[in-house]
Amino acid sequence: MKSFIFTISAVFLVAVVTAAPRKVALVVQNHCSGNIQPPMTALADTLTANLTESGLSVVNPANQIGTTQNTTSSGEKMPAASAKELGNILGVDGVITASVQEFTSESIGVPVVAYKLKTRITLTLFDCVSGGSVCGTGTQSYSKNYTVAQVKGDNATLYEGFLHASAEKCAAKFLSRYAKTDWTPSTARMLKVF
């Protein structure tokens, strides 16, 4: 009588389920002056790149519903529609408002020998289910000193470069705070949206 030994191998397939990235609308606003209208596009591009790299799926409302980003200093603190309404229109989980609160230059010396730029940017994430604020942050940045000749030569490039660097700094701080939240649209903290 022969005996047979059967070896049974079991293969287990483990499905790793990853959550879909949260979809957010990015609304960029200028609340300080008209002299930085051209660099606002750079700000939007920088923030979109940084937020996307973190795993968020970013939607520009201008591409979806034909609105323009706010480029004047008389802009609203929130989009024309509430976060809830924008969420329904765009099919997003949240709205991130990015606001340039301050963009100034300080003259150095008498007579003036150089200029230093200063900016203050805030980022706030609003939940589209509750309309409440999930998290937010603000940063203040200072540029290196620019000579009078540099500012007279090509101030648009200087402004854009500085705003780009300031936006990266603010995005990094925001993403650090965002990473500490356990945000899901159904459990967002309820706050009044102005």
Task: State the separation between the terminal residues, measured CA to CA.
Answer: 87 Å
Mean pLDDT comes to 77
The topology string of helices and strands comes to EHEHHEEEH
Structural Rg: 23 Å
Overall 3D geometry? Answer: elongated
Structural account:
This protein has 4 helices and 5 strands. With 194 residues, it is of the alpha/beta class. Strands 2-1-3-4-5 form a 5-stranded mixed beta sheet. Strand 4 and strand 5 form a beta hairpin. The longest helix has 32 residues. It is elongated.
Name some characteristics of this structure:
194 residues, alpha/beta, five-stranded mixed beta sheet, 5 strands, 30% helix, elongated, disordered C terminus
How is the secondary structure organized here?
Elements (H helix, E strand, L loop, with lengths): L22 E8 L9 H14 L3 E3 L1 H5 L17 H8 L3 E15 L5 E14 L5 E15 H32 L15
Parallel strand pairs: 1-2, 1-3
Antiparallel strand pairs: 3-4, 4-5
Helix pairs in contact: 1-4
